[in-house]
Amino acid sequence: DLQICQHRAPTCCTKKMEESYQAAVRRERTQSIQALNFELKYMIVGHITAFQEAFESLLRFAENRTSSLFETAYRPMAKEAAEPVKELFTDLSLYILGAETTVESAVLRFFDSLFPLVYSRLINPGITDLSEDYTECLRLTRQDVNPFGRYSKNMVTELSKSLWASRMLSQALSMGIEVINTTEHAALTKECSKALVKMQYCPHCQGLTLIRPCVGYCLNVMRGCLASVSELDAQWREYISTLEYLTNEMAASHDLETALAGIRNSVNEAILHAQLNGPQLSATVDKVCGQPKQQEGNLSSDNIAPVKEATETQTLVMAHASLNNKRREFINYMKRSRTFYASIAERLCDGDLVMRDSSTCWNGEDVV
Fold first, then answer.
1. Per UniProt, what is one Pfam family of this protein (predicted)?
2. Residue 319: its pLDDT value, please?
3. How far apart are the first and last CA of the chain?
4. Given this model, what pLDDT does residue 252 score?
């Protein structure tokens, strides 16, 4: 009653043993594909972590520089500005990691939060009553009065260009892991399971436990079994080309490091622009939001002290070099894996599975 290992000669197999063999080949095939995938997956996962660490390091660096701007140049609002600055960099980090948000909404939300502080602490430092309603009115007015001139829009443009490639790369790497995980658990058809049993275990039914499949026979069986997986070849090659394009984009004109480092300067220019146009802004705001309570006598207006760019170039250069090295190393490795899915049958038939240097091997029917 054997279904697979039918042979004219006497056999030591039963139908139950054939079923066990089918379970064994399914398990072994999954394990051998997992072993092939391991290095590739390990490399991608390692670089997802490395890129994310590099992104976080650059974001922290840029956040610290932006915070120090308020502490050195705009002390009256430094404490209250800490939260909007933190929110801005959290939003940018989430954007890079693929969250449903945009650079524009993050930057404009930051400037919405910043305007009430600039208005009440720098432009009109005598304001004492900054009620919730008045603050909200200032936030909403920001969009109409455009106190920060072109600087808020420029910041959106600069960051959108540079963060886009980082976001896409982050998503592409996660997609790569998904593809590999899916191929590991690709179900084997019944025909494939039977062909693998015939190739690997039917010789055992005749007591031939040391004989191994012939190379050509193994390749035919594996190619048939893995036809659906090897169909990924064209898409995988295209995927590698996309990764190459994205890593080049990150390194070229859309330089993430420069854009993040430039946030401090953009914010400084935006605040200076608002201060210079203080009288016009006050006139408009008074019409829209009404006049807030003022403290007797104006506070000293020595707040307009544009800060000179701090030279923390060393940290930036190191972060930049580290990210560039990771990009290069990663893309060189991935280029070598271009033929991964095209050559999967050959790789599975390599090694212990087949008879390489022997004159006899198993061809599915007999020893030849």
1. Glypican
2. 64
3. 26
4. 67
CB count, 10 Å around CB of 78? 18
Q: Which residues pair with 127 in a beta bridge?
A: 294
Give how far Cα 352 sits from Cα of 198, 214, 217, 223, 360, Å: 17, 12, 15, 18, 15
316/270 Cα distance (integer angstroms): 23
Dist CA 160 CA 94 (whole Å): 13
| pLDDT of 169 strictly over 50 | yes
Closest by CA position to 66, among listed 239, 262, 254: 262
* Residue 189: both structure tokens together: 């058809």
Residues ≥6 apart with Cβ < 8 Å to 49: none
List pLDDT tens digits, range 254-297.
577 788 889 999 999 999 999 999 999 999 998 888 887 665 44
SS (H, E, C) 209-241: CCCCECHHHHHHHHHHHCHHHHCCHHHHHHHHH
- Which residue, 131, 132, 130, 105, is CA-closest to 120? 130
